[in-house]
Amino acid sequence: MVAETFEFTKRAFSPFSLEHNPAAIEALRQEHLRNNPRNYLEMLEANEHRPAIGDRLGEIRCPTLIVVGEHDARTPVAMSEDLNKAITTSFLKIVPNCGHFYSYEQPERVCEVMTTFLEAFGAGRTERVGAR
């Protein structure tokens, strides 16, 4: 079962990472081997039954960072753009040459994005950061 779930997961990497970043894929494969397959299936099941909250996104008032891989087929850029429009205090960052697992594919770049976002906000600030 681990092999089957990992093949499903592997397809979420970007074409660039599949060709040029085998270390990222291996790191995630090792994590899959350490996980209980039953827990993974329960997570997938929970995702299918989570409540819809789209109509409440406008209520979010805190600074919100939305990060998406340029080639994310699971949660596409368009979905993140919709979130960015709905959450008025959000900042969208699209990570180039990444799929769904951007933190494995480009961890240094993702840390840079998160650090920049966190440094930009002091207590109580709610204005948008950076260009859209």
Explain what the structure shows:
This protein is mainly α and 132 residues long. The protein has one domain (2-120): Alpha/Beta hydrolase fold, catalytic domain (Rossmann fold, 3-Layer(aba) Sandwich), CATH 3.40.50. It is built from seven helices and two strands. It has helices at residues 2-10, 15-20, 22-34, 37-48, 77-86, 102-105, 107-120, and strands spanning 64-69, 90-95. Strands 1-2 form a two-stranded parallel ribbon. Helix 5 (77-86) links the parallel strand 1 (64-69) and strand 2. Helix 1 (2-10) packs antiparallel against helix 3 (22-34). The radius of gyration is 16 Å and the shape is globular.
Number of domains: 1
| Mean pLDDT metric | 85
Strand count, sense and barrel status of the largest sheet are: 2 strands, parallel
Task: Please report the distance between the alpha carbons of the first and last residues.
Answer: 41 Å
Give a count of the beta strands, DSSP E runs of length 2 or more.
Answer: 2
Number of helices: 7
Helix content: 40-55%
Architecture in CATH? 3-Layer(aba) Sandwich
Task: Provide the CATH top-level class.
Answer: Alpha Beta
Strand order of the largest sheet: 1-2
The computed structural class is mainly alpha
**Cα shape:** globular
**CA-atom Rg in angstroms:** 16 Å
Give the name of the CATH superfamily: Alpha/Beta hydrolase fold, catalytic domain
* Percentage of residues in DSSP E strands: 5-15%
H and E string? HHHHEHEHH
Low-confidence stretches: none
Return the CATH topology: Rossmann fold
